[in-house]
Design a protein that fits this description.
Length: 346
């Protein structure tokens, strides 16, 4: 009940008591009209919110700290009556209600806004609430919408191009030239009997007056193993903050390399996602990083960096903020680059 309603009923009671003490029928009539108006307000207010459906459309994936667009859809399913003065609460983190002056019968109204989720992980979006003080502004009527949902929020993504370019070897990654299936040109040679004629370079054969075959170069798979050492030594506030920064850095590396065509592997103490490439693989790793938690002890007592020595470039991110990038060739570290993640870095 609002303060307006308290004042209204207090005034009604005062008028009724004045009529009782004075015997003035006009005061009784005024009090009865006011009570009737209150009853009409209650009935009209409930009808005003009846058959109103509200839902929101969010993107298929969200990133912590990154604003995203939300479309709120409110539909009036009533056949004959419009709805007036409706507010929708719980849309954004600022909890600012959205006001609709009127919603026509059998019509839909849309509202677009932007908001952000501050933390990664499995988050529950707050339920939407419809409120209205129609018709007299005396009572506030509310209706909870069945739109509370759980979403997986990916870690915060930041620009890591400077980090990866600083290593000096991720751009080239030791190219090896060998014959095989591919699109690049490895060389040419003279045609041998029984070979596929599709590989004959007819223009060059006509120029040299003999059959010349085009040999292709086997395409190199660019691979990178991203290691997150989620073994946390203590649970202090700074240690937890650095761990979240480390998760954000690993997610940013996954985002960068998957979108650059690399074969990427994610290795942690609790989760392993094997080598693959493409956007689906990227989302699998980002979901794993969104839900990952730190551990205080490794039950198997194994070294993550030792497991990553499989011929690929290894990027190791530790909970203390250290990042090590190691180029591998035949299991031997060829080049090394390191830097520290600062807790204050956005």
């Amino acid at each position: 009940m609002t303060w307006e309603a308290v004042g209204f009923f207090a005034l009604t009671a005062a008028i009724f008591l004045a009529g009782f003490n004075s015997g003035n029928n006009l005061l009784y009539l005024i009090a009865a009209v006011m009570l009737g108006g209150a009853i009409v307000s209650i009935i009209a207010g409930r009808i005003n919110l009846a058959h109103l459906d509200v839902c929101r459309q969010v993107p298929s994936y969200l990133f912590a700290g990154h604003p995203f667009s939300i479309t709120v859809e409110i539909a009036n399913r009533k056949r004959f009556l419009d709805s007036f003065g409706v507010e929708v609460e719980g849309i954004n983190e600022a909890h600012e209600p959205v006001f609709f002056l009127s919603i026509g019968r059998r019509s839909v109204r849309l509202y677009d806004t932007r908001t952000a989720v501050p933390k990664r992980g499995l988050q529950t979006l707050p339920p939407l609430t419809l409120r209205s003080q129609f018709p007299w502004g005396i009572f506030t009527f509310s209706k909870k919408a069945a739109d509370s949902r759980e979403v997986i929020v990916y870690p915060h993504i930041r620009d890591v191009r400077e980090m990866t370019s600083g290593s000096g070897f991720l751009r080239d990654e030791y190219p090896r030239h060998a014959k095989g299936a591919g699109s690049g040109l490895y060389g040419v040679r003279e045609y041998r009997h029984g070979e596929d004629s599709a590989n004959i370079n007819w223009k060059l054969s006509a120029k040299l007056d003999r059959l010349i075959v085009r040999e292709t170069e086997r395409e190199e798979e660019r691979r990178v193993c991203i290691v997150l050492d989620n073994l946390l030594q203590d649970n202090s506030e700074r240690a937890v903050e650095l761990f979240e920064k480390a998760v954000s850095t690993v997610a940013s590396l996954v985002w960068h390399f998957c979108r650059s065509g690399y074969w990427v592997k994610l290795l942690t103490h609790t989760v392993v996602v094997g080598y693959d490439q493409g956007l689906d693989h990227m989302h699998r790793m980002l979901i794993a990083l969104a839900l990952i938690q730190s551990v205080t002890a490794d039950p198997e007592k194994h070294s993550l960096e030792r497991e990553a020595l499989d011929g690929a470039t290894c990027i190791s991110v530790r909970c203390d903020g250290e990042v090590h990038i190691t180029g591998q060739r035949n299991g031997v570290a060829a080049r090394k680059f390191s830097q520290r993640i600062e807790a204050e870095d956005a």
